[in-house]
Amino acid sequence: RWKRVTGVQTCALPIWPTVTAALRYDGTWPSLALDFSTWTDRSWAVQDDRWLPFWRREWRIGLQASLPLPLRDRSFGIEAGWAVTFHQANPRPDPSEPASSPPRWPRDSPEGRVTLGFHHDETASFAHSVGTARGHREGLVATIRHPLQRSDGGLAWSLWGYLDGFLPMPWPGDQVLSVQGSGAVAGGDPDRRSRYSLGGTPEQNPWSALWLRQPWTGRWLRGYPDTWWVGDAMTLWTLSYQVPLWSIHRGTGTFPLAARRIWATLFSDLGSAWRIGDRPEPGACLGVEIALSFHLLQWFDGSLRLGYGRGFGPRGGNTFYWLIGP
User: Fold this and answer.
1) Tell me: the pLDDT tens digits for 94-152?
2) Is there a contact between 324 and 204 (Cβ–Cβ < 8 Å)?
């Protein structure tokens, strides 16, 4: 009934360690979890109409309760939690010049976060499919960030939701058409609220992903510079068509490594991030991805993903990437 999870990873230069530790107890209804984590996160300051990115270390300790409600062909889940977060500011960048006002930095004082979420999953996969092949799933998570002292400013809130749908094609080949969408909006204290950014390729250490068994599971807007869009609200939609190419299911015979399937994915991304009150300026991308799923060391199932995306518009360009995914 007790489960313990720990992990440490870092970059070579600069040394920015990420540490996670969690203790989970499944002997109650709902399940309870106590977690601690520290990481380096990108934050944003505002100066006139410009965003100034900088890095700061986050320390978090939290208590969470989750209540899964599995049924025969679908599942529901409710989660609630409260956490305390401490911010450790790294050296901040020099303000941009010329400017009519000094930068407005986010608050560095400790804060509490109350989270309430709801999730529904009605998806299914088949023996010959390479992933989710049918159904839909959706969820909504609300967060309230509050000061621990009244003199440290006001409340901030955020809403984040997602909606994914998968449709198997009626012809042979186990091909799947999918639409995946997500959106978020934040409000309240402007020095405490969340910021969202889109653009660029996610940073992943492949060795840490394999050792810690943490494949990349997110989505991003491909074909544009890093953090090209920043704002208090965001939306991102991905239309993809998945085509299985080869079912291998063979190992090396000596080293515990086995290849499973190869498939291709044609995709289109559409999304933007913007300030509340401004008009969104969306970006769009078309691309293709080749993936190889594998089983490594009897403990990790993942996939090697190689992709190319072409962004449209004046800031669009060519993006090549490779990741360790699920």
Assistant:
1) 766 666 778 888 988 999 999 999 999 999 988 788 889 999 999 999 999 999 988 88
2) yes
Whether the upstream peptide bond of residue 14 has omega within 30° of 0, thus cis, is: yes
Structure tokens at 157: 């809130």
Most confident of 42-51, 134-143, 208-217, 314-323: 134-143
As a whole number of angstroms, the distance between CA 253 and CA 162 comes to 42
CA 281/CA 219 separation, integer angstroms: 19
Give per-residue pLDDT as tens, 157-195. Answer: 999 999 999 999 999 889 999 999 999 999 999 999 999
Q: Check: CB of residue 9 under 8 Å from CB of residue 17.
A: yes
Dihedral of the CA atoms 224, 137, 23, 110 (nearest 10)?
Answer: 50
Question: How far is Cα 241 from Cα 100, in angstroms, rounded to an integer?
Answer: 48
The pLDDT assigned to 207 comes to 75
pTM of structure? 0.90
Provide the residue type at 61 as one letter. Answer: I
All residues at 6 or more sequence positions from 171 whose CB lies less than 8 Å from its CB, including other chains: none
pLDDT at position 118: 96
Q: How many CA atoms lie within 13 A of 283 on its CB side?
A: 28
Give the side-chain half-sphere CA count within 13 A for 239.
5
Specify which residues 23 forms β-bridges with: 4, 34
Question: What are the phi and psi torsion angles at 80 (to 5°)?
Answer: -145, 145
Percent of residues in the chain assigned helix, strand, coil, to nearest 5: 5, 60, 35
